Amino acid sequence: MNLTDEGSLFWRAARSVVDGDLESLRRLLREEPGLVSMVSPDDFQATLLHFVAANGVRDDYQRSPANAPQVAECLLDAGAEPDAFAGSYGGGSHQTPLCLLVTSWWPHGRGVQVELVRALIQGGAKVDGVEGDAAPLASALLFGYTRAAEALVAEGARANGAFFAAGLGDLVGLQRALEQDTLEGLLGGYVPVLEVPRPCSKGAVIQEAFHFAVTHGRLEVMEWLLRQGASVNGATQGHHCELPAVQALFVGERSVFDWLCQRGADLDLVDRKRGQCARDVLG
Question: Would you say 205 and 228 are in contact if contact means Cβ atoms under 8 Å apart?
């Protein structure tokens, strides 16, 4: 079988996946059942189930049909490995369909991300990641996909520690985490699987937690964290943006941005990660 040919069974199946053409997909799987375990003949090394996540595959295959959850169920029923690794973003154990799904714009924009989270987990994907390091939840929270994060928790994801509690709006859990005397206790065993550096003090944990709350619009949590020493102008290296006000604009939380402005956010302070101040972002 010539997998590199755009007309090959694999690429025809991949197009069926991203187009939501279940009839064609089922026919191709009947012709070649092994398609569910094959990987794309490119650097992404993605299975068909990775194409459902619409992340870490070729750009021209990144789209989500309205019936994406049914497509995922079709592939899983046919024997697709729910936690298969892809070669995207350097490869490794975080390049599973679930981790890539909860950081993907396309299923979010199409309104199918939450249903896909459920379909993958019910199809056997490990809710806390293949290494048990909470990678799916950490990914969803860091990238700002609130409903995906909440869906993971509803499906049983571990949500311990200050960062997770802040992002999920769990004020009681956050208060409990910040009562701990050690960094391990503060973080609840959280492993910084993405860009969040390991904080070196309780104050750094509080500021990082504040950024998680900003990202997910948790105003009550933000108010409480300010009383614990967080700053509306405090910088962090763990998110797409360094400053809370720029982060709020980046993720589209305009009400959070207004809240920060009312409490003294400096709109002319340059976010070194973005190279812009909030006033520049506003245009």
Answer: no
Q: Is the pTM of this model over 0.90?
A: yes
- What is the rounded distance in angstroms from the CA atom of residue 267 to the CA atom of residue 49? 43
Residue 244 identity (one-letter amino acid): P
The per-residue pLDDT for range 189-241, each reduced to its tens digit, is: 655 554 556 667 889 889 999 999 999 999 999 999 999 999 999 998 777 89
Residue 276 pairs in a beta bridge with 271
Q: Is the pLDDT of residue 1 over 50?
A: no
Q: How far is CA 135 from the centre of its chain?
A: 9
**Which residue, chain included where needed, has tokens 């340059």?**
270
Q: pLDDT, tens digit, for every residue of 47-86?
A: 999 999 999 999 999 999 999 999 999 999 999 999 999 9
DSSP states of the chain as a string?
Answer: --TTSTTSHHHHHHHHHHHT-HHHHHHHHHH-GGGGG---SSTT---HHHHHHTSSS-GGG----TTHHHHHHHHHHTT--TT----GGG-STT-SHHHHHTT-HHHHHHT-HHHHHHHHHHTT--TT-TTSS-HHHHHHHHHT-HHHHHHHHHTT----SHHHHHHHT-HHHHHHHHT-SSHHHHHTT----SSPPPPSSHHHHHHHHHHHHHHTT-HHHHHHHHHTT--TT---SSSSSSSHHHHHHHTT-HHHHHHHHHTT--TTSEETTTTEEHHHHH-
Distance CA 50, CA 47 (A): 5
What phi and psi, each to the nearest 5 degrees, are found at residue 271? -80, 110
* Tokens found for residue 237: 């290296």
- Of 116, 114, 78, the C-alpha closest to 96 is 116
